[in-house]
Amino acid sequence: MKQSIGAKTLAFPTPAWVVGTYDMNGKPNAMTVAWAGICCSTPPCISVSLRKATYSYAGIMENKAFTVNIPSEDYVKEADYFGITSGRDEDKFEAACLTPVRSELVSAPYIGEFPVVIECKLLHSFEIGLHTMFVGEIMDIKAEESVLDENGNPDIEKVRPVVYGTGNRSYYGIGCNLGKAFSIGKKS
């Protein structure tokens, strides 16, 4: 029997993505978000939700752009750091020893060391409550050649993305492949 645990911000999986922005002076900044995901196929869009109090919120509003940087398990400490420190107080890229790279397509930096980067122009923003949801149209995805599959797409087992466990506030890697989508459910 299922037990009610109440209305909570709990869903599985939840990404641990790092959103890149420029501040009002053009300084690169980034913050870790978990309230995020693909939200439209055509045009291809992604959503991220931030509180107004964050430094990155103002950067997205000012520049009408952001990047989504997908850290591999190798960068879990840096991803956590980007979520617990404010860009108002220090240069996060310098402190984390990571490289901000200027996007040629949108007014936002991406993290050179992370294996996958999604460059987005701001399409919509919606105040929901404590958070504002930003919907960004995906202008390009950049991926390290080493994480691409034979079709030129990022391979999740090579990327080794970090996911966030909202219930216990911990980071996890991905599990094993369980089967092919749009196929495993077909009757044999």
Write the layout of secondary structure elements.
Elements: E1 14-15, E2 17-22, E3 28-33, E4 36-40, E5 45-51, H1 55-63, E6 65-70, H2 76-84, H3 92-96, E7 100-102, E8 109-111, E9 116-127, E10 131-143, H4 156-159, E11 163-165, E12 170-172
Antiparallel strand pairs: 1-11, 2-3, 2-6, 4-5, 5-10, 6-9, 7-8, 9-10, 11-12
Overall description:
With 188 residues, the protein is mostly beta strands. The protein has a single domain, classed as Pnp Oxidase, Chain A. The protein is 14% helix and 37% strand. The protein is globular, with a radius of gyration of 17 Å. The mean pLDDT is 95.
Low-confidence parts: none
Q: Which range best describes the helical content: under 10%, 10-25%, 25-40%, 40-55%, 55-70% or over 70%? A: 10-25%
Which strand order spans the largest sheet, edge to edge or round the barrel?
Answer: 3-2-6-9-10-5-4
Rg measurement, Å: 17 Å
**How many DSSP H or I helices?**
4
CATH class: Mainly Beta
Average pLDDT, to the nearest integer? Answer: 95
Q: Could you state the order of secondary-structure elements as H and E?
A: EEEEEHEHHEEEEHEE
